[in-house]
Amino acid sequence: MKKMKICYVAILVLGTTITSCSKEESVPNNSVLMAASSNPLYRHAVLAAYSFGVAGIDPYEKLKLPMDSVDPSEGPKYPFEVIEVPTPTYKEETCLLNISKLETHKTYHAIQSNKLTVGFFDDKGSAARVLKLNSDSTGWNAAWGCVQNVEVKNPDVLYVSTNSSFITVIYLSKPCIEFGFELAPDLQDYDHNIGVKFGNSFNGTSEGCITSKVRSPSGARLFALKATKPFTTITVTLNDKPIENAPMTGFGIANIRYKLAE
User: Fold this and answer.
1) pTM, entire model
2) Where are the domains of the chain?
3) What's the CATH architecture for 19-260?
4) Quick check: 97 and 116 in contact, CB under 8 A?
5) Which member of 43, 68, 121, 148 has the greatest number of CB atoms within 10 A?
């Protein structure tokens, strides 16, 4: 995969589904809060940590995440195509899982369209919750990414806390052949190495793997893959070592797109 160009804008950052088709998060400890206190996105997350969403999928209606090694890393690999930017073809052949109507400052274990439910889990297979934050052309997520790398400059986002785990698992209720999302970290002015694996169980890689460098502000990147074999599980891993006195405490994702397997 070729190196990606990232542009920078000196503005506060980060930003990032009910459906349109084009064709408890826990309160962080005080030390972490102090380290990230200058980050506007992080402040939103802290303030909303006491509020739990009830729209979308009820927190007790959990998807079952396959934890067994039915998709071992040493197993067969299948050809796949990495989609580096949101091209017209990518947008035309996928459906957008639109989060704009989710309630702001509420958390969700899963979100759904008429066709697909997307659930969030930690590295132990326990249900995780993501925080809905709105777009804002003049606020903290005004500098989401360069226009050639993302769909819009300041999208609505789902904020994923990484206080308890540096691995987040996205589980799909139906097999997909294509899936993607934009991602940016909440810690600004540092490069972060992100790995995204596609398979049919926790940490499965048979259908593909993407690694890329992201940054805030203005460095959100698309992580999207078109596979030749359906998949149901996407594992997002933060490959950085913690930065002393300034830990990355989460990231935002936006513009989740999918194409169901036939």
Assistant:
1) 0.79
2) 19-260
3) Sandwich (2.60)
4) yes
5) 121
